[in-house]
UniProtKB/TrEMBL annotation:
Signal peptide: none
Main location: endoplasmic reticulum
The protein, known as: ER lumen protein-retaining receptor
Family under the similarity heading: Belongs to the ERD2 family.
Cell compartments where the protein resides: Endoplasmic reticulum membrane
Keyword match Chloroplast: no
Keywords for the protein's UniProt record, in alphabetical order: Endoplasmic reticulum, ER-Golgi transport, Membrane, Protein transport, Receptor, Transmembrane, Transmembrane helix, Transport
Annotated TM spans: 52-78, 98-115, 121-140
Amino acid sequence: MNIFRLAGDMTHLASVLVLLLKIHTIKSCAGISLKTQELYALVFATRYLDLFISYISLYNTLMKLIFLGSSFSIVWYIRRHKIVRRSYDKDQDTFRHYFLILPCLLLALIIHEKFTFREVMWTFSLYLEAVAILPQLVLLQRTRNIDNLTGQYVLLLG
């Protein structure tokens, strides 16, 4: 554990909390890209394949569970919550996020530390995390309507 990892974890956690606060209290996901949230859910699902296999520390396990749970709950809110899903603007969130997945996977198959399933998936998650914010940025550029909580979320996530 170093200070940079801790700072990164805390800013990412803060961004997720800001987003969940917005969605839960306002009952709106306006300005939020479902595609970015799906990519982050995929990032954490592939990165934390070792969750139930290897134990590093309580902090590590808790952060993995928080990031997995929060990313899938955000996707659930936007897709399934009867009130929140009405505020999702599908017409504006048109970035073809599937085109990000294949190049990241191919890159992970080529450039990795060792050729094992978990290592390739972990490497894939790193590459995908680097570009997962793109659908959100494109959505914000299209709508040009950035509320305070959405702006804070993007700032903390970046």
